[in-house]
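Weekly structure sync, notes
Attendees: PL (lead), two postdocs, one rotation student
Agenda item 3: pending single-chain targets
PL asked that the sequence for the first pending target be pasted directly into the notes so everyone works from the same version. It is reproduced below exactly as submitted, 189 residues in total.
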Amino acid sequence: MFQIGKTIVSEEILENDFVCNLNACKGACCVGGEYGAPLEDSETDKLLNIYDEVKPFLRPEGIAAIEEHGVFVKGEDGEWETPLVNNNECAYVIFSDDGIAKCGLEAAYEAGATKWKKPISCYLYPVRTREYSEFTAVNYHKWEICDPACSLGKELKVPIYKFVKDALIKKFGKAWYKELEEVAAEKTR
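Predicted structure, written out during the meeting:
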């Protein structure tokens, strides 16, 4: 672990490789698991404000789950998250013709219907952050459904921190990311 500003960063994001391989996993991270995507407090307002613009991009099952439970829910851990369809996939998931799970929020963004791409937790994945009173923890979330992404990352030689560069910059800023790159360069000498 090392510190950058008010973050404590796991060296695993420097040491492990990762590139999403949707053809192999079919977007399983949006479908598997027991919880919805974690949401920051500020993202709950964004979801409320854009739901009408996003709704046309969603599946009927997702719309039904959202209209029954809300555009976001409080998880068992007391944190905000996206609702689920039948305790399975995220309510905002859509499927491509070849069965790959994709994000309906991102589809609305790409179509120009909204200015918000998706929750930062999804954008950062496989990096997870956790806010504490004095610092933010930045960790690698290893999940076996992402083994194909780890293999592809290793083949392409793309460390996690480079794969999620844009998301890390969005979350922590350019100066923070530049310092991360300096730490990575120092550790690989």
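Discussion points:
- DSSP finds ten helices and ten strands in the chain.
- Residues 27-125 form one domain.
Action: rotation student to compare against the earlier draft before next sync.
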